[in-house]
């Protein structure tokens, strides 16, 4: 029974295999002392090892290491925890896979020393089964690692979107949306949603969309701005687009962009002054003495 032999080796050679697993990782440059303490690394290895041993133990009766079986749930949970922590600290996908695979050959050595020479078939079957299992575990770890990195990228993108599309309250009932960089469809939708939410939250009557920091204005960007201004009007507020430089004005004319009823101003200062006039608000400047 090949699975029984694997379980006996994992159970009886635990201390030896844990040391060998760690040594193999060290030889392959997988020990990251800059990211983990020795205690943390050992704790992770032991958690995975014990979960693996538990799954193998549950597979002895059927004499088959089926990676899809429910008996590996603890191992999957342990892998998810370790992968999440290692990925967060900067371990690469390749290193994560190699981290798991490093157990393979130390186990094979001990299997060879344990199985009697007359049981060559048992040894071969044990090696084949454990290879299939550990390869499947490695693939699962890679998928987990990629998933965690995707989550990190999405979170960072969302944070950048929030920073890149802030809504600022300039005055009572006056908010500004300063745009910087490139305005694509996804970001334009984010800008619109943030702006409409701010109108309700701040009870704004005037929204100044400042494009001074926008890299280029083409037909698509212009349409995004006009649609945002239209949505602002539907919310009962007035929209002013500021930061219209001579170059941008010429570009928009050449593109045949019709701003319609949307007010435009060359600077944020002029847009704010226009907003004060619409609100019938006077700002008095007093010289400090």
TrEMBL record:
InterPro entries noted in UniProt: Bact_StressResp_Reg, RsbRD_N_dom, STAS_dom, STAS_dom_sf
A Pfam family hit: STAS
Species of the source: Roseivivax halodurans JCM 10272
Matching PANTHER family: RSBT ANTAGONIST PROTEIN RSBS-RELATED (PTHR33745), RSBT CO-ANTAGONIST PROTEIN RSBRC (PTHR33745:SF3)
Protein name: Anti-sigma factor antagonist
Domain STAS: 164-275
UniProt keyword terms in alphabetical order: Phosphoprotein
Signal peptide: none
């Amino acid at each position: 029974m090949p699975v029984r032999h694997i379980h006996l080796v994992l159970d009886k050679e635990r201390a030896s295999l844990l040391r060998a697993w760690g040594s193999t990782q060290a030889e392959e440059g997988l020990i990251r002392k800059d990211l983990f303490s020795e205690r943390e690394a050992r704790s992770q290895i032991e958690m995975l090892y014990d979960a693996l041993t538990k799954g193998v133990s549950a597979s002895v009766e059927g004499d088959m290491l089926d990676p899809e079986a429910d008996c590996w749930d603890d191992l999957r949970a342990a892998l998810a925890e370790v992968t999440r922590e290692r990925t967060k600290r900067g371990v690469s996908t390749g290193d994560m896979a190699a981290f798991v695979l490093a157990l393979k050959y130390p186990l094979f050595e001990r299997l060879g020393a344990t199985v009697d020479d007359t049981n060559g078939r048992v040894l071969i079957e044990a090696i084949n089964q454990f290879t299939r299992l550990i390869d499947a575990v490695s693939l699962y770890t890679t998928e987990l690692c990629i998933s965690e990195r995707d989550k990190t990228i999405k979170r960072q993108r969302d944070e950048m979107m929030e920073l890149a599309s802030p809504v600022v309250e300039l005055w009572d009932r006056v908010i500004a949306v300063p745009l910087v960089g490139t305005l694509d469809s996804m970001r334009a939708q984010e800008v619109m949603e943030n702006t409409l939410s701010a109108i309700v939250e701040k009870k704004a009557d005037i929204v100044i969309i400042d494009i001074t920091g926008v890299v280029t204005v083409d037909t698509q960007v212009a349409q995004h701005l006009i649609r945002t201004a239209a949505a602002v009007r539907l919310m009962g507020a007035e929209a002013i687009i500021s930061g219209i430089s001579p170059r941008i004005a010429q570009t928009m004319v050449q593109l045949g962009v019709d701003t319609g009823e949307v007010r435009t101003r060359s600077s944020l200062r002029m847009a704010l002054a226009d907003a004060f006039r619409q609100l019938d608000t006077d700002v008095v400047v007093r010289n400090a003495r």
